[in-house]
Specification:
heterodimer, A: alpha+beta, Butyryl-CoA Dehydrogenase, subunit A, domain 2, 4-stranded mixed beta sheet, globular, B: two-stranded antiparallel ribbon, 13 strands, about 30% helix
Amino acid sequence: MDYFLSEEQIMIRDLARQIAEEKIVPVRAELDETGEFPWDIMKTLAQSDLFGLFIPEEYGGLGKGSLELAIAVEELSRACLGVSTSYAANALGTYPILLFGTDEQKKRFLPDIAAGKRLVAFGLTEANAGSDAGGTQTTARLEGNEYVINGTKQWITNGGVAEVYTIVAITDRSKGPRGASAFVVEKGTPGFTFGKKENKMGIRASATTELIFDNCRIPRENLIGKDGAGFLVAMKTLDNSRTGVGSQGVGVAQGAFEEAVKFARQRVQFGHPVITFQAVQHMLADMATSIEASRALVYTVSRFIDSGAKDVSKESAMAKVFATDTAMKVTTDAVQIMGGSGYMKEYPVEKMMRDAKILQIYEGTNQIQRNVIGQALIKEAARNR
Amino acid sequence: MRIVVCIKQVPDTSEVRINPETNTLMRDGVPSIINPYDMHALEAGIQIREKAGGTVTAITMGPPQAEAALREAISMGADKAVLISDRAFAGSDTWATAYVLAKAVSLLGADIVLCGKQAIDGDTAQVGPEMAEFLDIPHVSYIRKIDDVSADRIIVQRLMDDGSDLVESSVPVLLTVVRELNTPRMPSLKGKMAAKKAEIGRLTSSDLNADENNLGLRGSPTQVRNIFAPETKKDRKIIEGSAEEQVNCIVAELAGMKCL
């Protein structure tokens, strides 16, 4: 279906697709097997200017928005979610600086990020702070001109490989929701180390590690936004990154769907290609419909965000929850359509199914997304009364 | 350093099929690409510029639609592009093509001229070396590695059947390259956007001051009569004897086949 993309958006889509088909598809099975971080592919993405997609031109980026990012992420995800997560997590990690950083901070960090010279990670999650961000225990104590950080972040994407980390830590516990602040910490800062790399069900090419802060001192200038604005920074960051996760869902679903169709056309049983059976056709029809609906929702919400809308929480949550639930169902159905072959590592869909699961969990579980939507509905109803 | 890269727009022959009735290539609807060997030449040119500075100009002799290939070259990183196009060039064989390209290179000025080893539609591998002769500059072909480039000399490795030769040449020089030389980069978004807006230079036969007797079908000493997939007949004869006896035998056989 034609989404009336601009010439530049088509250019971005075609370039991301070319990279996906030529550089990612040939190595995705091996990356999944070894769990090796795709440095070569990151280099290609950097050289093709894709890291700077959403960064303003004045800082060396291309000044594009959520829709362009969604388009690029979708194409990469169609090939491999592990790789697309490694790419998309940079946007997640950069949004705090983009949305709340000072001009000096932007000048200091954005150009290298746009050039793909330094990868980024977002550190919010902890052992006691998953869906409940209020359970954060990492602290940042102001001492003269420095903040001293102590604590451990868990399951951080791009942990260890990124050089720039935007984290949230408690600066004044007595202030409750206003008691956290956001900071930038650079790799190599004394007192900042990494824990083991997690062994995951899927997106195995993506590096997931603990971030360990032990009296890690950072300059005062590394505070992002106002003291106490930490949770606000996190919430706004997630509002903006949800469409990216949604587009990951669209991409992996599209990839799995195409594999299922390809297989069903040539697999013959009872004297006919299985795609001629109504049961299979109905499954494929439902898959295709839900993928298109997910894509339309992700694109529309992206355009809404790019229009400068002030409050996008509800819509971005809808895009994330719908597209990622679709991805899980479509990848599962793709395995089903391919039967025994779908279960074998020889075919790419079992990996896609394993990969897709995380989409329903990270960046706000789909249960939390429904909470967000519910709260927004209540607020709207109260306003309209 | 003035680097000129010669490219050719060709049909993607991996997609082309042979018409079983006429035995010719079916070109309709086949996408056009930059000749794969020329992509390696472009990459080499860009890498030389990154190391030694200068400009990379992509040129092509072709019909107006070859402009798309030039824009693709710019999206990869070429600084400028020139389309050499004129009705008079139609039907050119490698001699006439090399003549025109050499004229263009003379006009533009070049220190290093890079060409792909051969075009995947013509497969002669003649144009590069012929150009060098027209330009009266040295050429080294089948380059698999560029060891050093400076303003007055280059050191390269030429791929041979049994290894490679280390060759030093003065500059200006023409090089033809093989796939082993490098991995062509993906185009960049900034490059693609620049390519869209870029002004492509144009040269016609009068701009080149070309002698019309050397152009097009009329200026081509060779003419393609037919393209066909030959039947492979396997006829073997094993020749015995001393080296001299074998040579005499072979010469007699070839003369008998009217090959000598």
